[in-house]
Specification:
single chain; mainly alpha; two-stranded antiparallel ribbon; 4 strands
Length: 293
């Protein structure tokens, strides 16, 4: 563990030095070095995700540099704070978001981090959630099948409203971004089409919308299951209470019957007599003589 701590300490110090040089010399020239630094940050971040002890070592380094943080701060944010400083919170948030997104797409980001960032549309696109390529529910469209599945999913949903055909509408069929105006009477007017039918931006929105629908369905199903389990548990408790009360009532009834039976037996027994009883026994030697015992 000591070797790991020493290694991450040395790596982070080296990264800090490279970042400082980049800011002073190369920032205006190109983002290539930035992507290189972030790529190495990503390698460190993956280690942090796997080893809590390294996160604790990171905390010590932040404390040593006088950088404030709380236990609730995400490891990605801690790492970026350490490497890039804590002067620009927007930058820390943006780069930390890139770390998290890269981890969600680890195979592609690890293979070529810089190329992955570029395919996603850059750091700002990743930060705002408007990445244009990649995979998953982030709205990426590199996989045509992802769009086809999303389009089929949304095709099952009923349209909010339908507008009569117009010669001003595109001839292609599919999905397109629309700028629309809603009037006071809640009628909708199409002002302008944004982009082309089934362009990358439209596909991205379709994939996101389908993912949101699926998430809502899962949430509803999960809520229904929880409600059902709660109702089952409530019914079980009610049944147990009813059974317990019935058992207690039966015992009480049996005790009452036993008491009544005992009372009747007592009534049939003869009253005790105050007469004296004398027991005699016959003398074995003389049958004519009785002796009081």
């Amino acid at each position: 563990m000591t070797n790991l701590n020493t290694s991450i300490n040395s790596t982070c110090k080296s990264l800090i030095s490279e970042r400082e040089n980049w800011e002073k010399i190369e920032l205006a020239a190109s983002n290539t070095k930035l992507y290189s630094i972030l790529s190495r940050c990503f390698e460190v971040y993956k280690q942090l995700k796997q080893n809590q002890f390294l996160v604790e070592e990171l905390d010590k380094m932040l404390t040593a540099k006088g950088i404030k943080f709380t236990a609730a701060v995400h490891p990605a944010n801690k790492l970026i704070k350490l490497i890039f400083g804590d002067n620009d919170r927007r930058r820390v948030s943006a780069y930390a978001t890139v770390m998290k997104a890269a981890h969600e797409n680890a195979s592609k980001a690890t293979a070529d981090f810089a190329a992955w960032v570029k395919r996603e549309g850059g750091i700002e696109a990743i930060r705002t959630g408007n990445a244009t390529t990649g995979g998953g529910s982030s709205g990426t469209t590199s996989d045509p099948e992802a769009f086809n599945k999303a389009a089929a999913r949304l095709g099952k949903e009923a349209a909010i409203a339908s507008i009569a055909p117009s010669s001003k509408f595109p001839e292609e069929t599919g999905y397109v971004m629309v700028l629309a105006r809603i009037a006071p009477d809640r009628s909708l007017s199409v002002v302008k089409f944004i982009g082309k039918v089934n362009d990358e931006r439209a596909k991205s929105i379709v994939i996101k919308a389908a993912a949101a629908e699926d998430a809502d369905c899962k949430a509803s199903a999960s809520k229904a299951i929880k409600t059902m389990k709660k109702n089952i548990a409530t019914k079980k408790r009610a049944d147990e209470k009813t059974a317990k009360e019935a058992k207690a009532a039966l015992h009480a009834k049996m005790d009452k019957r036993n008491f009544a039976a005992e009372s009747r037996i007592d009534e049939k027994l003869p009253e005790p007599s105050d007469k004296a009883f004398v027991i005699y026994k016959v003398n074995a030697d003389d049958d004519s003589v009785n002796e009081a015992a």
